[in-house]
Design brief:
Strand content: 25-35%
Number of strands: 17
Structural class: alpha+beta
Number of helices: 15
Distance between the termini: 57 Å
Protein name: ATP-grasp domain-containing protein
Keywords: ATP-binding, Ligase, Nucleotide-binding
GO molecular function, one term: ligase activity
CATH architecture of the largest domain: 2-Layer Sandwich
Oligomer: single chain
GO cellular component, one term: cytosol
Radius of gyration: 21 Å
Strand order of the largest sheet: 14-13-10-11-12-15-17-16
CATH superfamily of the largest domain: ATP-grasp fold, B domain
Shape: globular
CATH topology of the largest domain: D-amino Acid Aminotransferase, Chain A, domain 1
């Protein structure tokens, strides 16, 4: 009898949580991954790891890894032409040409693989902040005041300090700066140098001070259901983030008021359906005075996915795959509606506060509830992610404090 096990190629900056979920759902998993953390390997049949294949490190190729992810994906398809599904996680958010190169290769070689991702045009619309703001305004939702950097000189005073300087294409909190004065803005741009600052690529945005949250949704392009609403940890000093707005983790669920939840859900569902998103996707907000201001659309499986899975005790990657099959949508919809948080889950991404000797990494990896375990073959440099900490509890405080205790243990090890 022929083996009916389906296979999935998962591609991204950190595929470990996706690969784990897919393996748990019974799929054969192949990965193209940036880091190649130790706990990825038990979940995959085979993998291509960027920093391992190129014998380099995070700092050296962090600006070019999207092109490399695309090239390595083509290599993996050539090696395994009979893989069934392709899922692209983080790392190719704004890399439209790289995505097209993968799809073109699939068509050219007539591979059987089915892309379980949003199409490139949909992703471009979702990542175009002007397009998104116009959509929101047409439905009478409020948006942060945003203008292009080029127009800022003609609109001085329109956006008050402090304000945000951000790249129109950014992810994970990179290329976002809080600016308090014109002098500070001028100094920052000078420090970029002429090569590092293309005026066309940058926006000036009203600074919204509030609670960072996110919403995870699943859709078939015509209908959608909310999975979880999450607290976002942004630039949390406990976790030594390299930048002020670096994504550092989540607390799931967010425990918002019913009124706040209702508005988050309304905006998320409106955008999901207007954009025609498919599968599992994420929306980032800042909640200020009970109003959720949209910051970013992530038209792919978000970084909070594993925390949501543990909170719900559900396999969301399996639902993601099924959501692309219209015949299975009723099953996905019923399952998603019935999934309610049973645990509070805290996810921390711990960044190295200084260079960490490779001999200490094995000790850190042995700690309870540590994931994305760094390979102990070389030191971890300051500002690089060392590990993820994930704890569940019956209360938010229990899960948070247990995760925090692991941070304290790590700090003792590396002191």
């Amino acid at each position: 009898m022929e083996d009916q096990t389906k296979s999935v190629l998962v591609v991204g900056f950190n595929t470990r949580p996706l690969a784990l979920s897919l393996k748990n759902a019974g799929y054969d998993v192949y990965a193209v991954d940036f880091f190649g953390d130790l706990d990825l390997y038990p979940s995959v049949v085979d993998s291509l790891i960027l920093i391992k294949e190129l014998e380099t490190d995070y700092g050296t190729i962090k600006g070019t890894y999207s092109k490399l992810l695309s090239e390595f994906t083509v290599q993996m398809l050539k090696k395994y032409p009979r893989i069934d599904y392709l899922i692209i996680g983080s790392g190719l958010d704004d890399s439209y040409e790289e995505r097209k190169a993968i799809i073109n290769e699939i068509k050219k070689k007539n591979y059987r693989i089915k892309s379980l991702n949003n199409d490139v045009e949909t992703i471009e619309n979702a990542r175009n902040i002007e397009y998104i703001h116009n959509l929101l305004k047409s439905h009478n939702f409020k948006v942060p005041l945003t203008i292009s950097y080029i127009d800022f000189g003609n609109n001085k005073g329109k956006i008050q300090f402090p304000l945000i300087l951000k790249k129109s294409k950014s992810a994970g909190g990179l290329n976002i700066y809080k600016i308090s004065t014109y002098e500070e803005l001028s100094t920052l741009i000078k420090n970029f140098g002429s090569d590092g600052f293309n005026q066309n690529d940058w926006l000036i945005q009203e600074y919204i001070e509030g609670i960072p949250i996110s919403c995870t949704v699943i859709s078939n392009g015509k209908e959608c259901e909310i999975i979880t609403i999450n607290r976002q940890l942004i630039g949390d000093p406990l976790l030594n983030p390299p930048k002020e707005f670096t994504y550092c983790g989540n607390i799931v669920p967010a425990e918002l008021s019913k009124r706040d939840e209702k508005l988050v859900i309304k905006i998320t569902k409106t955008l999901t359906l207007k954009l025609g998103l498919k599968g599992v996707n994420g929306f980032d907000y800042v909640l200020k005075d009970h109003y959720p201001y949209l910051m970013e659309v992530n038209p792919r499986i978000p970084g909070s996915i594993r925390a949501s899975e543990v909170s719900l005790d559900a396999n969301l990657l399996d639902l993601h795959i099924k959501s692309f099959n219209l015949d299975m949508w009723d099953q996905v919809r019923i399952s998603t509606k019935s999934n309610k948080p049973i645990f509070f889950v805290t996810k921390f991404i711990f960044f190295a506060p200084k260079e960490i000797n490779k001999n200490l990494i094995t000790i850190i990896n042995s700690l309870d509830c540590v994931h994305d375990k760094s390979t102990p073959t070389k030191s971890i440099l300051k500002g690089e992610p060392l590990c993820t900490i994930l704890y569940k509890g019956k209360t938010k405080l229990e899960s948070y404090n247990r995760a925090k205790n692991t941070v304290i243990e790590i700090n003792k090890i590396i002191k």
